[in-house]
Amino acid sequence: MSRTEVYNSKYIYAMNGHSKNVNSITTDSKFCYSGSNDCSIRVWSLENGYCTSKLASHEAPVLSVAVHKGKIVSGDSHGVLKSWKISTERELNTFQSHTARISTFVIDKHQRLFSGSADHTIKLWDLNDGNLKRTYKGHSDTVSHIICNIKSNRFFSSSIDNSAISWDIETGTQIQKFSEHKDWIFSMLYDSNKKQLYTCSQDRMVKVWDPKSGKCIHTLFGHEYGVIKMILHKNFLYTASWDSRIGIYNLKKPLQMPKFLSGHSGKLRCLTRYEDHLYSGGNDGQVRIWSLKAHKCKAVYKGHVKPVTSIIVPNKYVTLSCGEEKKIFRWTSSSVLSSAKSKQSFETLALKEKNKIELHRDHSYDLGSKASEQEVKIIINGEPFRVSSKLNLLEACRKVGFDIAALCYHPALGPVGTCKCCVVDVKSENSSNYKRACACATEVWNGMDIKTDSPQVREQLMSAIADLRKKQKNRSLIMKMYGNTDNRGDLSLENYIGKGESRLGTTKFELNDKVIEDKTDSMLDLLINRFSTKFIDKTNLAIQVDHTKCIDCTRCVNVCSNLQGMNVYSTISSTVFSESLMPALNTKGKFLSDTMCISCGQCSLYCPSGAITEIDHTENLEVVMKTKKKLVIVGIAPSCRISLAEIFKLTPGSLTTGQCVHLLKLLGFNRIFDVQFTADLTIMEEGTELLHRIKDPNSILPMFTSCCPAWVNMVEKQYPNIIPHLSSCRSPQQMFGSVIKNYYAKRVNVDPKDIFCVTVMPCTAKKKELLRDQFRNPETGLKDVDLALTVREIGRMVAKRGIEFSELEEREFDNPLGFSTGSAQLFAGSGGVMEAAVRSAYWLKFGENFPALVYNAVRGLKGIKEAVLDFDGKQLRLAAVSGGKNIHKFLETWGTSAFNYDFIEIMACPGGCIGGGGQPRSNLDIVPIRIKSVYQREQKMKARSSHDNPYVKKLYQEWLKKPYGEKAMMYLHTTYAPFKFKSSLQKEKQKHGDINKGLTSKNSFLILYGSQTGTAEKAAEKIADITKSKKKKVRIMEMNEFGKPINLKKEKFVIFVTSTFWDGSFPENALQFWEDLKNLQPMSLTRLKYCTFGLGSSTYTRFNNAAKQIDDKLKELGATEILPIGLSDREDKNGYLSTLNPWLQDYEKIIRKIKKRKIWK
């Protein structure tokens, strides 16, 4: 190549399975072996990346693993070594004599095991019988490295006591001691040709020794920080250093300064060689490949988010790396890289290797992509890094390997800055003083200097936890979380608060459950008057809210409002309202069942503390199973077979369908069926119904899908006029139950009363759907489906039974409800129902298959997808929408001529069922991986279209007769009705719709607010209450809801209330209003009278910036300020009340003077 080409690896997958960080990896010709802090060793296939077995007899973290002649040897932090036979996985010997952790060990060709420890000793063991042969004492600190297999009867050891020693193996005596280093010796290397010993140290030097005399021959200088690893190749010595560089020393000219290979942005942690390439890993999370011929970087592998500590290259096809993470990454081979002469040929060769080795990837990166965003230089704890300027400080630190705790922050929701657990110290290049800041709410800038672990930061962290404890008095803060990996190192409450407890000496609160059933009291009464008892609101029937576990993170508020657009949750700020024991989340004084909640469960997916969870039905199921009086049947939904792998910390889709079947069999189900079978049935019914509606000029179009129960809940609660447009088809779950109780029961001669029908679903709303009266037998009252379990509940059952991934073998579904097609698999993702319906509707209409089985127009994770299909000369207008907020946006034009569609698929959860509220709590980027697995599986199905399912055809022949026929309408279709709220509280289409009804600019005050977490909204409501108490009419709404600011010309008196979000930004519901306000011409609002109140925190540099900018702009526009701006500080002793109460007194005096008619002149 004429120039250096650097590529980011595109072909990468991670081997997930360990529950804690991986410390060591090694390989043989077929398998990879990993040791972890979870005290286990896992064995992985190099062919496909599957975990084949788990060895778990260690009682302490496994620090190192080695393989030697069919045996695995491992050492742990308690000083114990163990050996296993690989072929039988049987434990052979335990080597137990060290009194401290095993720091290093090696095995020589004579089956002798040398182990070094933090107890300063080296021990010699017989690998075959486990006997201790000899102990070598001479070091005064931890042994760092051992070299054996030297022709003479000796070995070398080094220590962090700055010395190295050569030993006589038989007598145990010291031969020579090498002690000229001034700091720790990290590593050694022996040149058998020249009979020279090389040592590298934290003192930045490499020394070359004569082993016989013990004299130093040469000292190699050049590095700025410690040298941690050396590689000897031909006449060159390659060194890895903490200065982020690889040194190249020409041993023919030892006095010459080295050349350097630069590219890493953090300390180097490991260095290895395979053929003519070097592989380096460091704190920047990168693995780099360097050509030993050209001395240039050939490739960059980016996937780790924490430091890379080990790299193994077992063959020309595989590169493995691990770091301070739970997963092991696998990359494309060095041979592919070296033979690629261009980006295109690199991709082609890599694809060929992919065909040889099936890759199950959990990350995907663009090949050869260059950073489009600008990078800035930052310093973290004294180390320089380059990061994207678009990252906040928390993400930047995590990206380069510095883990910072955070409770309220989630990458999908953006920063809030309420928990104060991610505090750091920052300063700029021009400043000499550090200032405290919340990392999640601080943007990075060039030259930023950050301290993440200073005594002051730790003290602030403990203070934040203490404040959290004080605020959470009488609340239970600890809940055992199952499957909560959250995202990119985000700590769960269990882990994080646990650390705080150990430092603060606090204890857990243990309270007895009290479930709310008495609905005579309001939710607020229960919160205020009965807060000394733990209680759970289960009235929703799908999800439950335990207010005692709320930690004020406001994630539920953000996900419900900003992601789903439902606005069910809000905050009750103890700084605005005096009830100090109020939890952060509430449902505006209502039980959850009486709100606009659609049971989608997204709040339970994001809640870090267990305050919001699905209602657990595993105990109900176990009771039924133990009686053994009923035939327990289970059906698994399309997306669940993809995400079940995450239970075992594996990549989505890693479990085959057959393994999923075996898993359910091990859990105790009697019959294992497939809900994909009834998904095919749904398509036959829905496709036929669509054709009927298109054909009949009097029919109602557009037709909406009805298989998502959360979407149906939304229609019945918020959009009842859409009910006639819903398909009458039941969801696949309810068709499944109907077929089981009405067809299968007769076929196997079992009374339906003796069948217990269970489904495994990605959705919490399915729990509520099965309780509908329409889905009960009108004569017996039996439910079609008795129980719906989420994937998380299955995970808890798996954990309780102790089922291991290695136990899972291939099993077949039971028939006749076990066969399905690719169309049914597509139900897992947004657009899948649409694509499947189009395939079969086309076949039902023309008697031939749809020309293109893959309909890309409706595939992918885009929130709103539109397409036009030529259908027998008619332009069929299609749309597929997922995510609550996207649904509301899509329906904005409902009822107008602009809404011009024929068939619409709606899924309430972002991405469809694959992102459902009952799915495992996994990494943020897991949904694209899940959907990719869906499409891969669909392509491999024997039949691709629902009408090709032979068992569905047989079902129609034996029972249903024909799609959309009389019997099908009885058992497979249903009806809907507007939701009737059980309390006196009425539904709210808009947050303040009832307050504003009938009011205009001519007869009322106007309060406009911008609020990110709900606190500013509460302040605005309090201002509204005072205004109404003075017999003044008032409207209240979000700033963005008001529309164009030019309409302020029509207003006479406006109160602006806004919080300052992040470090100076406007809240999302005020941002568009502000952008439009900035563009107004000066003196364009001269008739307007106004006042402004701001909420903020002096923690941030641009304190109350939003309120100040609005106030300044209004003055520029000629508006008249009738009350000085109020700027409150959350950090004051009484919080916002310190400023709000005095400001309200002045406000009350002013509006008291305003006569009803005078203000409008």
TrEMBL record:
Pfam families: Fe_hyd_lg_C, Fe_hyd_SSU, Fer2_4, Fer4_9, Flavodoxin_1, WD40
SUPFAM superfamilies per record: 2Fe-2S ferredoxin-like, 4Fe-4S ferredoxins, Fe-only hydrogenase, Flavoproteins, Soluble quinoprotein glucose dehydrogenase, WD40 repeat-like
Entry-linked CDD domains: fer2, WD40
Keyword Iron-sulfur annotated: yes
Domain 4Fe-4S ferredoxin-type: 541-571, 588-617
Domain Flavodoxin-like: 1005-1148
SMART domains (alphabetical): Fe_hyd_SSU, WD40
UniProt xrefs under Gene3D superfamilies: 3.10.20.740, 3.30.70.20, 3.40.50.1780, 3.40.50.360, Fe-only Hydrogenase (Larger Subunit), Chain L, domain 3 (3.40.950.10), Iron hydrogenase, small subunit (4.10.260.20), YVTN repeat-like/Quinoprotein amine dehydrogenase (2.130.10.10)
WD repeats: 15-54, 55-94, 95-135, 136-177, 178-219, 261-300
Source organism, top-level taxon: Eukaryota
Domain 2Fe-2S ferredoxin-type: 374-456
Record key words, sorted: Iron, Iron-sulfur, Metal-binding, Repeat, WD repeat
Entries under InterPro entries matching the protein: 2Fe-2S_ferredoxin-like_sf, 2Fe-2S_ferredoxin-type, 4Fe4S_Fe-S-bd, 4Fe4S_Fe_S_CS, Cytosolic_Fe-S_CAF, Fe_hydrogenase, Fe_hydrogenase_lsu_C, Fe_hydrogenase_ssu
Keyword Isomerase: no
Listed PANTHER family: NITRATE, FORMATE, IRON DEHYDROGENASE (PTHR11615)
Family assignment from sequence similarity: Belongs to the NARF family.
Record-given protein name: Iron hydrogenase
Source organism: Anaeramoeba flamelloides
